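Sample pair:
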Amino acid sequence: MRKQSSEKFYAREYLHPRHWLMWCAFGLLRLLSLLPYRPAMVVGRLFGDAIRLLAVSRRKIVDINLRHCFPEKSRAERDRIKHGCFQSIGISLVEMSMCWWWSDERLKPLVEIQGLENLKAVFDSGRGAILLAGHFTSLEISGRLFTLHNPVNAMYRTQSNDMFDSYLYTRRCRYIENMISRKNTRQLIRATRSKTPTWYAPDQDFPLEKNVFAPFMGVTTATITASSRLAQSTGCAMLPFYPERKADGSGYIIRIDAPLVDFPSGDDLKDATAINQSIEHYARLYPENYMWIHRRFKTRPAGEPPFYA
């Protein structure tokens, strides 16, 4: 039974043996949360290396994505990005434990936020704000760190594992102002009209939703048009939001860019292209941090062969 209408996780409902592996995973994450930051990042990279060796099908998806998105790079360069991507995924698991169990005081020294003046200017103009994020591996920790400086709403997508979905939702509710289902349009509109920004990542393949085919990383990509409708119905500005792990391993930089210009424009393809270009900008700057394990290009235009055959 889903608990997304509640902020309480009922452990007794997940005592069946089929949930034991997930309990072990939660226990391991809890232990990792006891580590200092830098050793935790080392463990995360080791996790990522293990995932890369074991997840053969995901390795193939990454290879296909990188081959199409970076045709100008050599095989060795793409392999380095793949290796870094899996290490970043491993780090993201450790960061999840930080989100769940680290105190505000322990997290605050790790984050630097650039561009808060862009958010303030939007609110001063009387508009609401949508923080346009992409599925980067540092996305989860960025939401937790941002709440140390400003409350935030977040859109969520139901996870396939009931227990993980319930626990993740419950944990996020401890620091996110409002958790909003992507399917709850009314709640979403109400939240975006407040002075609390809404965290929104539309860069996944949603074949059952209205899409247009817009360029992303040089590939014709099915892109939802809901972003345009959301901005149109709420009058919100769309501000690119990007979390970066510092190169020296000392923490994070969260960048909030100026709002997208002329958005929404009334042209779904133009708007989808603007969304994709914003996410692509950082995916090219920091390719190891993007979630290449997703089948982002699964939905193809009519007549095109399958991308992941």
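The two ends are 35 Å apart (CA to CA).
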